[in-house]
C-alpha cells in the first residue's frame, strides 16, 4: 500500500513539514486503532487512562480528499467502545458513523470492527473521538484531510503545520465521575485541568515539565489546526502578541478573519494562519481558558503553552515559569471568561468563502422547518431515593421537552431491517409542545418535567430542512454546542431572546452563511440552520457538552433513500457489531 507522509503521528511539535499541501492522488488508507489502557501521570496523579495505541492524545489520521478509509478498531478493554469520525459526512455509510446505539452496537471486549468510508468533497481539519459514555475524555485525535487543489489562502508559502488539540484532564476516573452524576442526579465533578495536546502547562501543580511548546522561525507563515476535544467546556484560545487569521472552520473554507483570539466549542475545529512577525528570539504564551455562560460549577483555570521563536532561544528556567506567568498576564492575552460580546462578535464574523471553486450551497427555500427548544430540566426524585440536584431533585435535559433515551440496539440497524417496534418512534414534536417566554421564565421557580423516549422525525431524500434551536432559561441560560451527524449545515441566523418565525427569517444570511457541523447556540437565544438532507440514514443531533447528552439533550432524524441506487444507504458490513 502506498503511504502518504506520516499517516499516524503521535508527537505534537511543528508537524507535516515534509507533507505536500495538496494532492490529486487518492487511494485506500488503512489504519489500526487499539483501544487500551495506558498509565499516565498529570498534576502529580498517576492513573490508568483510556487511549488509542497508548497515545494521549491519540494518533493523527492524515488522508487525501477522495481517499477511501479503513480503520480497524480493536477493543482491548473490558468495557464496550465505539469511535466517531466527527464531521465526516459518511455519505451512504452511516454504519461507520460511530455513536453507540444510534448507528451501531458497541464493539465488545476483545472484538474488532473496521470503519469503512470514503472522504468525498471534504478537506481540512476534523477530529475523531470515542462515542460511548464519557470515553472521549481521553480517546480523541485529529483527522486531517489534504485537498485536491492548492489552498485558497492568500499570502505566504506555508512553512509547516501545528495541530493543537484542546482537552480536559480529571485526576479521578472519568467513568466513575459519570456514574456518580447519573446515580445522584446532581451535576458532574468538574475537570482538574485544561490541556494543550494533552499537556496542562506550568499554571497547574507538578506540570512545568508537561508544557506544550511549538518551535517556529521568524518571518514565516504556519497553519494552526485548533480542535476543541474538551468534554464539557467551550474555550477561548489565543497567542500573546500575535494576530490569528481564520481561514477554515469545521473543514470548510471561510473568508479570512483577523482576530486576537477565538471562541471554539467542543467538537468544533478552527484552522488559523499564524505569521511569525517578531524579529527577535523569545517565547510567547499560548493559552486556553473557558467561555462561561452557566451558573453550574466549572473549572476556571487556564492551560498555557509556549510559542518559541527559532528554537535557539533558551527556555525560561523551568522553576520560575509559573511565577512569571501570572493570572494577570493570561488575562491580557485572553478575553474575560464571561465575555459573551466577544464570543458573539467572533461567531458573527465567520462567513463561507463562497468562491466559484468553493460555492456556498445554502438552501434559499425550505421544505420543512423544525423548531426545538433546548432545555435543562429538574425531575422529581423517585420515591425511596435521595437526589442531589437542585432542591432535592434530579437534573435532566431535553429537546422539545423530550429527554432522549438510547435504545438497547442500533437505531440504524432496526430502521434498515424495518424492525422499529420498541426501538424508536417517528413522533418527535416539530415545534415546542407548549409556547411560553422561552428565555424569560424564572430559572428556578418554573420548570417542566420532561418526557422520555427515543423519538425521531423523518424527511425525504433531498429535502431542504431548517432547524431552529431555541434556548430556554430553565435552571439558567447557557450556550449549547449542537452537533449534527451525517451532514454539514449553514448557520443562516442567530439571535438573543425568542425566535420570531415571522420576522427573524427576513434577516437570514442566505448569501455566505458559515457552513459547519457544530453550532454554538447563543446563551439565552436561538440559532437557525439549513441542511440539504441528501445523505440517507439515521443521524444523531446532540449537545456536545457530554454532561447534557447524558441527561438527554439529543434527538435524531432519518433521511429516506432517494430514487436512484446512488442515493440509497449501503448494505451493513459483515463485521458490524452485535448487541
TrEMBL record:
It is found in: Secreted, Extracellular space, Apoplast. It comes from the Eukaryota. PROSITE patterns: MULTICOPPER_OXIDASE1, MULTICOPPER_OXIDASE2. Coiled coil: none annotated. Its cofactor is Cu cation. Lignin degradation and detoxification of lignin-derived products. Its EC number is 1.10.3.2. It catalyses: 4 hydroquinone + O2 = 4 benzosemiquinone + 2 H2O. Residues 34-149, 162-311, 427-561 form the Plastocyanin-like domain. This is Laccase. Keywords: Apoplast, Copper, Glycoprotein, Lignin degradation, Metal-binding, Oxidoreductase, Repeat, Secreted, Signal. Pfam families: Cu-oxidase, Cu-oxidase_2, Cu-oxidase_3. Residues 1-25 form the signal peptide. Its main location: secreted. SUPFAM superfamilies: Cupredoxins (SSF49503). Belongs to the multicopper oxidase family. InterPro entries: Cu-oxidase-like_N, Cu-oxidase_2nd, Cu-oxidase_C, Cu-oxidase_fam, Cu_oxidase_CS, Cu_oxidase_Cu_BS, Cupredoxin, CuRO_1_LCC. It comes from Brassica rapa subsp. trilocularis. Binds 4 Cu cations per monomer.
Amino acid at each position: 500500500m502506498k503511504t502518504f507522509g506520516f499517516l499516524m503521528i503521535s508527537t505534537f511539535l511543528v508537524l507535516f513539514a515534509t507533507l505536500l499541501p495538496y494532492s490529486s492522488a487518492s487511494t485506500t488508507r488503512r489504519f489500526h486503532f487499539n483501544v487500551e489502557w495506558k498509565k499516565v501521570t498529570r498534576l502529580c496523579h498517576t492513573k490508568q487512562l483510556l487511549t488509542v495505541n497508548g497515545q494521549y492524545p491519540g494518533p493523527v489520521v492524515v488522508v487525501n480528499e477522495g481517499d477511501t478509509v479503513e480503520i480497524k478498531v480493536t477493543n482491548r478493554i473490558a468495557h464496550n467502545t465505539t469511535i466517531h469520525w466527527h464531521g465526516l459526512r459518511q455519505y451512504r455509510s452511516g454504519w461507520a458513523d460511530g455513536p453507540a446505539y444510534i448507528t451501531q452496537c458497541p464493539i465488545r471486549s476483545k472484538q474488532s470492527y473496521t470503519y469503512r468510508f470514503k472522504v468525498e468533497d471534504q478537506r481540512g481539519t476534523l477530529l475523531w473521538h470515542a462515542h460511548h459514555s464519557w470515553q472521549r475524555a481521553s480517546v480523541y485525535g485529529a483527522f486531517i484531510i489534504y485537498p485536491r487543489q492548492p489552498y485558497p489562502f492568500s499570502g505566504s508559502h506555508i512553512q509547516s503545520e501545528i495541530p493543537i488539540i484542546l482537552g480536559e484532564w480529571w485526576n479521578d476516573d472519568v467513568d466513575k465521575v459519570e456514574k456518580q452524576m447519573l446515580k445522584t442526579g446532581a451535576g458532574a465533578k468538574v475537570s482538574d485541568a485544561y490541556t494543550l495536546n494533552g499537556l496542562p502547562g506550568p499554571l497547574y501543580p507538578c506540570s512545568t515539565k508537561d508544557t506544550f511548546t511549538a518551535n517556529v522561525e521568524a518571518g514565516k507563515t504556519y497553519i494552526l489546526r485548533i480542535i476543541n476535544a474538551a468534554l464539557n467546556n467551550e474555550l477561548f484560545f489565543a497567542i500573546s502578541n500575535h494576530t490569528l487569521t481564520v481561514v477554515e472552520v469545521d473543514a470548510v473554507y471561510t473568508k479570512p478573519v483577523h482576530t486576537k483570539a477565538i471562541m471554539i466549542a467542543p467538537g468544533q475545529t478552527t484552522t488559523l494562519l499564524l505569521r511569525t512577525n517578531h524579529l527577535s528570539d523569545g517565547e510567547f504564551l499560548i493559552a486556553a481558558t473557558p467561555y462561561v455562560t452557566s451558573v453550574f460549577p466549572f473549572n476556571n483555570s487556564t492551560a498555557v503553552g509556549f510559542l518559541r521563536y527559532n528554537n535557539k532561544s533558551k527556555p525560561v528556567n523551568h522553576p520560575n515559569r509559573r511565577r512569571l506567568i501570572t493570572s494577570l498576564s493570561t488575562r491580557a492575552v485572553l478575553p474575560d471568561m464571561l465575555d459573551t460580546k466577544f464570543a458573539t462578535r467572533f461567531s458573527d464574523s465567520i462567513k463561507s468563502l463562497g468562491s466559484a471553486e468553493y460555492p456556498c450551497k445554502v438552501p434559499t427555500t425550505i421544505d420543512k422547518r423544525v423548531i426545538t427548544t433546548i432545555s435543562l430540566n429538574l425531575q422529581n426524585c423517585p420515591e425511596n431515593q435521595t437526589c442531589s440536584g437542585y432542591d432535592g431533585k434530579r437534573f435532566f435535559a431535553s429537546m422539545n421537552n423530550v429527554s432522549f433515551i438510547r435504545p438497547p440496539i442500533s437505531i440504524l440497524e432496526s430502521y434498515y431491517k424495518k424492525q422499529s417496534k420498541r426501538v424508536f418512534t417517528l413522533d418527535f414534536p416539530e415545534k415546542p409542545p407548549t409556547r411560553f417566554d422561552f428565555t424569560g421564565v424564572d430559572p428556578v421557580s418554573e420548570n417542566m418535567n420532561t418526557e422520555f423516549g427515543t423519538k425521531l422525525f423523518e424527511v425525504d431524500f433531498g429535502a431542504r430542512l431548517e432547524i431552529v434551536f431555541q434556548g430556554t432559561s430553565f435552571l439558567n441560560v447557557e450556550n449549547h454546542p449542537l452537533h449534527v451527524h451525517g451532514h454539514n449545515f449553514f448557520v443562516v441566523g442567530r439571535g438573543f431572546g425568542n425566535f420570531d418565525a415571522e420576522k427573524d427569517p427576513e434577516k437570514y444570511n442566505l448569501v455566505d452563511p458559515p457552513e459547519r457541523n457544530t453550532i454554538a447556540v447563543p446563551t439565552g437565544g436561538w440559532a437557525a440552520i439549513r441542511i440539504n438532507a441528501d445523505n440517507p440514514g439515521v443521524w444523531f443531533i446532540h449537545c456536545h457538552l457530554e454532561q447534557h447528552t447524558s441527561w438527554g439533550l439529543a434527538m435524531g432524524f432519518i433521511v429516506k433513500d432517494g430514487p436512484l441506487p446512488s442515493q440509497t444507504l449501503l448494505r451493513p458490513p459483515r463485521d458490524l457489531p452485535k448487541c
